[in-house]
Amino acid sequence: MAAKSQPNVPKAKSGDSVTNDRTASQGQWGRAWEVDWFSLGSIIFLLLCRTFIVYYFIMACDQYSCALTGPVVDIATGRARLSDIWAKTPPITRKAAQLYTLWVTFQVLLYTSLPDFCHKFLPGYVGGIQEGAVTPAGVVNKYQINGLQAWLLTHLLWFANAHLLSWFSPTIIFDNWIPLLWCANILGYAVSTFAMVKGYFFPTSARDCKFTGNFFYNYMMGVEFNPRIGKWFDFKLFFNGRPGIVAWTLINLSFAAKQRELHGHVTNAMVLVNVLQAIYVIDFFWNETWYLKTIDICHDHFGWYLGWGDCVWLPYLYTLQGLYLVYHPVQLSTPHAVGVLLLGLVGYYIFRVANHQKDLFRRTDGRCLIWGKKPKVIECSYTSADGQRHHSKLLVSGFWGVARHFNYVGDLMGSLAYCLACGGGHLLPYFYIIYMAILLTHRCLRDEHRCASKYGRDWERYTAAVPYRLLPGIF
Ligand code: NDP
Questions:
Q1: Which residues contact 175 (CB under 8 A, 6 or more apart)?
Q2: Is residue 313 situated within a structural domain?
Q3: Closest CA to 461 of 352, 378, 404
Q4: Distance 206 CA to ligand 1 centre (A)
Q5: Is the Cβ atom of 305 under 6 angstroms away from ligand 1?
Q6: Where do transmembrane segments lie in this chain (predicted)?
Q7: DSSP-based three-state secondary structure for 373
Q8: How far is the CA of 327 from the centre of ligand 1 (A)?
Q9: Whole-angstrom Cα distance, residue 196 to residue 200?
Q10: 313: Cβ below 6 Å to ligand 1?
Q11: Same structural domain for residues 114 and 263?
């Protein structure tokens, strides 16, 4: 049964001075309604290629010890045919299907049946029932934030198994990596298709659905904004966080266990990758309430891009460094390891502080200190599809006064650190930084386009005050 969205829209403040006399037309600042040929071409290309890219990377590790050129050279020189490579690829197995079903069911249960208790005893942690942002149609959804709890319980069980219970080997994920890939794909495609059908026939909030008239665009970028089943099962929050991000640290732990099994020890590079990525994952769950205000939840509709991306792309490609280190047990020199650690920590610091500054600023409506001072503000306004006028503020101090997306710079530094931990032997572990650079640059442009439509002249005032997007003086 579809959940009822909460029509709990903040009222426009009558009497406030309206600072934006050219606000975009009502409710037009969400996802596009019309698709140009370039977007359509890119989408069809991604739909066709992304599944293949994941297969290629994982197969190159399995059959060519992570040498990306290996399959191409073999095929070009006639040493192997496509059918030979395919024949050597492990198929889906009953064991993998059972494991994957158990895993997803367990995460669904943690998500739906266990209201958050972490916020009751962890000082500073914000969990339990929280509100998301105002959608283009003017809806404010409520969310049950219990991701940290799910992560903790899952990992507690993992360590209890590894050290006490011995129900399964900690290498279980690595040992079933390709059979699990087929299961993840089945779920990714199934959930994206279901979301599309649901958007047409029984949407959760019809007012926040968008139809472009183009099947591929609708399938890829989603029709429904916040599809739900029942009152609390929110597709975006669940799929991004649970099968994807909770799994991330478990996958890395399984790779570390495999490295120990194969090579007798865990290298410092593997420890660095595990630690730096665990910081990122724990940060995500500690700040899950903040995540409700990020682009994934606030602006993206739920389609194949998020559904398949969360099930397949994230767990398989964000963990390539750990996978690579199973095949290549790199042991870094102390200066190299310290350099990687420092880069990762400084990147994380910028990422966290920048995101925190915006979050604090928005939560307190600007009544806070940023770098010890009262923040500089640009007042702005916008109109949602229901005709309501809303007021908001843009922060011009702290990292948001250095560049308009300095949080992305911190993220990119952290991403580079994971890759550098793998040394210089192969290109494969560097895929992550290349991908993140493209993703975040594109995201930056996409977000700015949306903000310009939403805030009109107020956004122009912000870009005049903070002229650079990512790196001052460069871009
Ligand atoms: P942001 O957190 O940067 O949010 C952008 C939104 O913030 C804008 O749409 C606007 O929303 C608001 N905003 C923009 N400028 C200002 C300002 N000066 N003051 C106040 N509000 C402002 O974007 P993301 O959601 O993309 O990123 C969140 C984090 O997640 C980033 O650190 C990013 O690096 C990370 N990330 C990681 C990914 C990964 O795969 N590892 C993928 C994507 C993101 P509004 O309409 O509310 O005004």
A1: 169, 258
A2: yes
A3: 378
A4: 26
A5: no
A6: 37-58, 150-170, 176-197, 262-282, 332-351, 415-440
A7: strand
A8: 36
A9: 7
A10: no
A11: yes
Find the 336 Cα to ligand 1 centroid distance in Å.
32
Q: Is the pTM of this model over 0.85?
A: yes
- Comparing 130 with 214, the larger pLDDT belongs to 130
Angle 369-136-226 (CA atoms, 0-180°, nearest 5)?
95
* Average pLDDT of span 424-443: 94
| Domain-ending residue, one of 331, 360, 381 | 331
Confidence of residue 9 (pLDDT cuts 50, 70, 90): very low
For residue 335, the surrounding DSSP H or E stretch is: helix 334-363
Q: Is residue 257 located within the same domain as residue 377?
A: no
327 and 351, same domain (yes or no) = no
Of ligand 1's atoms, which has the minimum distance to the CA of residue 351?
Answer: 32
CB atoms near residue 286 (< 10 Å): 19
Structural contact between residues 231 and 143, judged by C-beta atoms closer than 8 angstroms: no
pLDDT, residue 339, reads 98
The answer as to whether 35 is a domain residue is: no
Question: Could you tell me the residue range of the domain that residue 110 belongs to?
Answer: 93-331
Average pLDDT for residues 304-310, to the nearest whole number? 95
Query: Average model confidence (pLDDT) for the chain?
Result: 90
Domain co-membership, 145 together with 268 = yes
Q: What is the pLDDT of residues 57-71, one digit of tens each?
A: 999 999 999 999 999
**Is 2 part of a structural domain of the chain?**
no
Task: Tell me if residue 44 falls in helix, strand or coil.
Answer: helix
Section 236-262 average pLDDT: 95
Cβ(358) – ligand 1 distance below 6 Å: yes
CA angle 22, 25, 27 (to 5 degrees): 130
Number of domains in the chain: 3
175 and 266 belong to one structural domain: yes
Strand 389-395 vs strand 128-134: parallel, antiparallel, or unpaired?
unpaired
Alpha-carbon distance of 472 to 307, in angstroms, equals 35
pLDDT score for 31: 58
Per-residue confidence at 32, pLDDT binned at 50, 70, 90? low
Domain boundary among 331, 347, 366: 331
pLDDT digits over 373-418, tens only? Answer: 999 999 998 887 777 888 899 999 999 999 999 999 999 999 999 9
- With CA atoms as reference, report the closest residue to 404 among 352, 367, 444: 444
| CA atoms of 443 and 458, how far apart (whole Å) | 20
Identify which of 451, 462, 469 to mutate to test ligand 1's pocket (most ligand atoms within 8 A of the CB): 451
176 and 297 co-located in one domain: yes
Q: 61: closest CA among 428, 409, 432?
A: 428
Q: Which among 429, 377, 158 has a CA at the least distance from the CA of 272?
A: 429
User: What count of Cα atoms within 13 Å lies in the side-chain half-sphere of residue 437?
Assistant: 10
Tell whether 322 and 468 lie within a shared domain: no
Tell whether 283 and 182 lie within a shared domain: yes
Domain-embedded: residue 140: yes
